Amino acid sequence: MEGTVxxxxxxxxxxxxxxxxxxxxxxxxxxxxxxGAAVLGIATLAVKRLIDRAARPPGEDEKPDQKSISETWxxxxxxxxxxxxxxxxxENSVNKSLPAVIKIEKEDCSPSSTAEVPxxxxxxxxxxxxxxxxxxxxxxxxxxxxxxxxxxxxxxALDVCMEIQAFLRSKQPEMPLGEMxxxxxxxxxxxxxxxxxxxxxVPLLIEEKFWYFVPGEETILNTPQFWMVRRTxxxxxxxxxxxxxxxxxxxxxxxxxxxxxxHKLVMGSMNWPALGSMLDCTIRQVMGSQELKLxxxxxxxxxxxxxxxxxxxxxxxxxxQPESKGNFENLWCRSFYTDEATKLRDLDASDSGLRLCCLKxxxxxxxxxxxxxxxxxxxxxxxxxxxxxxxSDWSEAALADRFLQVITEVTGYLEQGFLPSxxxxxxxxxxxxxxxxxxxxxxxxxxxxxxxxxxxxxxx
Length: 460
Known about the structure:
Layout: H1 2-55, H2 66-78, H3 84-109, H4 131-143, H5 147-171, E1 181-183, E2 197-203, E3 211-214, E4 226-231, E5 248-249, E6 252-253, H6 255-269, H7 272-278, E7 282-285, E8 292-298, E9 301-313, E10 316-319, H8 322-325, E11 332-334, H9 337-351, H10 355-368, H11 377-388, H12 399-416, H13 435-450
Parallel strand pairs: 2-9
Antiparallel strand pairs: 1-2, 3-4, 4-11, 5-6, 7-8, 8-9, 9-10, 10-11
Helix pairs in contact: 1-3, 2-3, 4-10, 9-11, 10-11, 11-12, 12-13
């Protein structure tokens, strides 16, 4: 009796589903048309068969009911859902695919499917969710340099510096030069990614009674960044009274003439292969550069040394940088590098801030991204110094906010086309960039404001 009741209930349930399907197909024909109703009928039939199979006890093993399928197709033909040819093609597709579906269902229920899956070895990778975590991870894994690499680069630069100084003193003992020293980001703990660059500073001893330092605002170019050194008191001290008189062009000390003289002495006269063999490395001159630059290769490491003539007068430091002066051979570049690095370090020491950390991350980003490689450390230092006048919180918790804020400030300066030097607001640090370079840099930083993660992806 119970079995009869269950069969009747089941039959009524199936009739209800069939009526729902017929109603759905009849209305689908009006909405979807003939072809669409046929496709909907196939999909509905497949779903119905899967539901029926899932409702049966696992022990039952029945074959597909081909009669019910043909009867269903007869019902579809009665509703006029598809032409005869379309009906035959779809019917064949259903007859082929339905047994495969049932076979997969049986395999899923079989005991063999419960076999253990072999364990995969999972490596634990640090999960960085917030921008602050990503910045700190980027800083620790990519920006910072190992102490051994820094020490090796410093020692190699020092060895080369001693050899050049000894050579110049023996070759040109009358040339008034001060004690040479090594400087730059490598020796100020500001170098990032790789220890590959240093500066050899060659101070020229200039007699103050013979020379007058002309500020940039007083020159014919009226450019605060570039100064001139004029020869004075010629009526009392004629030409030849100063060693540097031989480098005068138009009444001014020519930075180009000094560079060319040092180039002939250092680059053309020193025996670099012999020196490299003595220091267990390869030393060669970098060709195609207006600056005095050496390349030192040792095993897998590479180090570039810029030989930079400088003039110190009280608190003013002038450097000879041919690539910055263009075609003006009498100009000397006013440098604030030492003042900027000292100021930044003092600010961090006063509040335990992470300005230097933020600077290094930005320098590494600009070094990694091809579109940002014209952005120098000097640009970034001055932006951070300007921002420090208005923002006092440079703690680790605020690193991400300050990082984005620096990018915003840089974008604003690029849009204006003017980035004032922190120690001389009349100096535009963007004057060396072309309009195309400013547009490219500005576009990259603008995109990074909405997607800062793109800056932490290493370029090629």
